Amino acid sequence: TSCTTCNANEIWNGQACEACPDGSYSAGGDATTTLCTTCALNEYWNWTACQAMTFHHVSPSSSSATVTTTSKYQFSHAVKAPHKNVVYFVPKNIDVIGKLDVESETFSELQFTSLTGSTQNYEGGTVVGSKIYMTPMHKNHIGVFDTETKEYSTIAVYASSDPKNMANGPPASIGTKLYICPNMAGNVMAVIDTTTDTASLITLDTIPTYSSRRFAGSFAVGDKVICVPYGRFDTGIGIYDTTTQTWTRRSITDVVPDQASNGHYMYQNGCVAGDVVYFAGDRRAGVGKYNVTADDFYEIAVDQAAASFTGCAVLNGKAYFPPSKGRSILVVDVATDAYETIAVSGVEDIQAINANYRSFGVGAIALNNFIMPPFGNDEIGFLKIGFTCATDEYWNGTSCAACAEGSFSAGGNATSCENL
Questions:
Q1: Residue 62 has pLDDT above 70, yes or no
Q2: Do residues 320 and 344 make contact, with C-beta atoms less than 8 angstroms apart?
Q3: What phi, psi does 60 have (nearest 5°)?
Q4: pLDDT digits (tens, 9 = 90+) for 166-208
Q5: Alpha-carbon gap, residue 209 to 213, rounded angstroms
Q6: Within 13 A of 319's CA, how many CA atoms are on the CB side?
Q7: What distance in Å separates the CA atoms of residue 191 and residue 164, rounded to the nearest whole number?
Q8: Stretch 260-279: mean pLDDT, rounded?
């Protein structure tokens, strides 16, 4: 006779080892282990037990670099580089591109002659290949940063004599093209062909606006581009079908009525989880949730003030929203809509300076950390959301082990390595 040892995240069902259900865990080991453990929303599994997520912050000034522009609204978005635990910060009212090495928590600045002295630059970023494409704010062009060559360039898109708030949020990536929903750019959708780095415009039907505002974010679900409703209660959710090349607007007036207080500037930025696009509330206190396949829209009621959070990132069934005007990180269970908040402490109180200032920009996930770029404050936020092996290591069931030569891993909770 012999004894059976179950692997991590397996249990003994009386006859054999079987996998724990999604969202629950086990340390494995003895065949007498018969229960899986479910962690709370504000906890993660460290391979042996549930552990509380923890927040800390790092000052960019503690690195060898010095921030060159001290105005608020510094970096609008964090974007993870491909195959690296490096996160880049998209510049808004600052004239450098930020670079964060997640493992060492070291911040540096990338300076470019054509960017120096420039403000009101970009409002979001999306990675395609090795390049980050950045959405224009008060510009007629898309910004492009190549994470391999470290070169910065631009692609002409619009031809406004006075470009203002042209678009907002990250471009939507479908195939080899990027799609950018308009904010104040007019009734046009910008399209970037990433194989040639050229731009074109698609004319849309007239869109209801508030102070010329339309949408604040572009997200891809399958072959559809989803535009986050921002300007007015009857702007609706913009939907562009890239297969049929048709444009529609999905009404949300049953959820967002014509109210002076929150019937405009409704949602801004968001993230995608499967068929669902989340919209962070702006004048709305809740989180919008749109299931594209089911064409179902409703709002998750959150017991926080309006504009408490900004655009999110998703990992392992949870959506993470950084604090904007609020002082907590929002964690939403994508399956149940349950949520928890995690307090942010030790960060400059921006609201005491100016109620319009917002603390962090849109976050990104790298090495099982939720990274939040400094926006209205001068700190980089880190929320540890999972067990962490180093880059080019993996979890072998007992400990972190080095990948074999010629293979790599992004670290975090990876259980295998990939061949180069």
A1: no
A2: no
A3: -55, -30
A4: 999 999 999 999 999 999 999 999 999 999 999 999 999 999 9
A5: 5
A6: 29
A7: 19
A8: 87
Whether the pLDDT of residue 268 is over 60: the answer is: yes
CA nearest to 103, candidates 83, 85, 80:
85
Closest-CA residue to 77 (of 237, 265, 313, 284)? 313
**Which residue is associated with the tokens 């535009």?**
227
CB-CB contact of 372 with 360 (8 Å): yes
Sign of CA dihedral 61, 62, 63, 64: positive
Going by their DSSP bridges, the two strands 24-25 and 86-91 should be labelled as: unpaired
Closest C-alpha to 179, from 188, 187, 313? 188
What pLDDT does residue 293 have?
97
* Cβ proximity of 310 and 362 under 8 Å: yes
Q: Is the pLDDT of residue 342 over 80?
A: yes
Confirm if 241 and 172 have CB atoms less than 8 A apart.
Answer: no
What are the phi and psi torsion angles at 352 (to 5°)? -70, -20
77-94 per-position pLDDT tens digit: 999 998 788 999 999 999
Residue 198 token pair? 């050229």
CB atoms within 10 A of CB 418: 12
pLDDT for res 10: 86
- Nearest-Å Rg of the Cα atoms of the chain is 22
58 with 105: CB under 8 angstroms? yes
Helix (H, G, I), strand (E, B) or coil at 351: helix
Dump pLDDT digits (tens) for 139-151. 999 999 999 999 9
Mean pLDDT, residues 377-396: 82
Strand-pair partners of 281: 267
Q: State whether the Cα torsion 319-322-325-327 is positive or negative.
A: positive
Residue with tokens 């415009």: 201
CA distances from 200 to 54, 141, 197 (A): 44, 12, 10
- The pLDDT assigned to 164 comes to 96
Q: Give the angle 404-405-410 at the CA atoms, nearest 5°.
A: 70
H/E stretch holding 366: strand 364-366
